[in-house]
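Lecture notes, part 5. Sequence design as translation. It can be helpful to think of inverse folding as translation between two languages: the language of shapes and the language of residues. The source text, in structure tokens, appears below.
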């Protein structure tokens, strides 16, 4: 039977407020576990591996799975990041690459090198759609997908909505591009954007059209994932609502909404989508 697991971003637990004390990792892990998430995602560059490795005891203490969003800045960085992910028993590595060739064909050797390095360790490797990274641009991504058919994606569609200033309703051309990305995505991230802002407040009335667009995209992507994967496969969905300046703030640097409650809400939406797909496919 296929399984859905919902993870929470440790970065997304940060407050970054000028007055309110920052949460400790102990408190964040406890909150995530008590809320019923299945795991936590951590986001190391190579220099940050030691501090992230120190979190192993908290993963063990709270029985949470580990996902790694890796930030390699050179082709050689992936070796250390994959070794780290293996030691952490990570379910997968999502790559947000600081190696960013201008031409898609120039990215092919490094993408294939990293895919091979991950395969040698038995580590699932996905390439995340992300601004200021290898897959910064939707059109670059579509071209690279054609050049490297074996490349699998982690879909954080918020970046493409801002990158290409998508309109609502989404034009048929752009919807077809998103469907192509979703057809190659083996992990999905929970953040909702509009054409000008990468992370909007999901309960504001003016944002509901984009909430419905993203929920439909998640449903499409999850449905496609279910059709192409084995009966015992596990899908990971990551709630990743970033702290300021991702989160919009007022003049006093107070956020306009409660990101933790929004993470719980997105988690529940995705579980409802999964359950509905399960019931309709029986």
């Amino acid at each position: 039977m296929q399984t859905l697991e919902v993870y929470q971003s440790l970065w997304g637990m940060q407050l970054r407020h000028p007055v309110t004390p920052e949460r400790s990792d102990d408190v964040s892990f406890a909150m995530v576990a008590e809320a019923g998430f299945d795991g936590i995602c951590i986001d190391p560059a190579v220099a940050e591996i030691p501090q992230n490795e120190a979190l192993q005891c908290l993963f063990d203490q709270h029985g949470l799975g580990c996902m790694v969003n890796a930030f390699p800045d050179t082709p050689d960085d992936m070796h250390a990041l994959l070794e780290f992910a293996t030691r952490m028993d990570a379910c997968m590595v999502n790559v947000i690459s600081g190696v960013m060739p201008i031409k898609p064909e120039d990215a092919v050797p490094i993408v294939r090198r990293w895919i091979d390095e991950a395969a040698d360790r038995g580590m699932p490797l996905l390439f995340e759609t992300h601004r200021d990274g290898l897959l910064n641009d939707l059109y670059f991504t579509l071209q690279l997908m054609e050049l490297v058919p074996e490349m699998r994606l982690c879909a954080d569609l918020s970046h493409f909505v801002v990158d290409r200033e998508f309109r609502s309703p989404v034009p048929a051309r752009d919807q077809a591009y998103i469907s192509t990305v979703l057809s190659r995505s083996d992990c999905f991230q929970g953040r909702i954007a509009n054409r000008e802002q990468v992370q909007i407040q999901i309960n504001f009335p003016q944002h509901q059209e984009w909430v419905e667009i993203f929920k439909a995209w998640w449903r499409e992507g999850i449905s496609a994932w279910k059709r192409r994967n084995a009966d015992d496969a596990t899908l990971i969905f990551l709630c990743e609502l970033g702290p300021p300046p991702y989160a919009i703030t007022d003049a006093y640097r107070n956020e306009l909404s409660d990101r933790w409650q929004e993470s719980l809400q997105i988690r529940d939406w995705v579980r409802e989508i999964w359950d509905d797909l399960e019931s309709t496919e029986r």
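The translated text above is only one of many valid answers, since several sequences can fold into similar shapes. Residues 20 and 254 are 10 Å apart (CA to CA).
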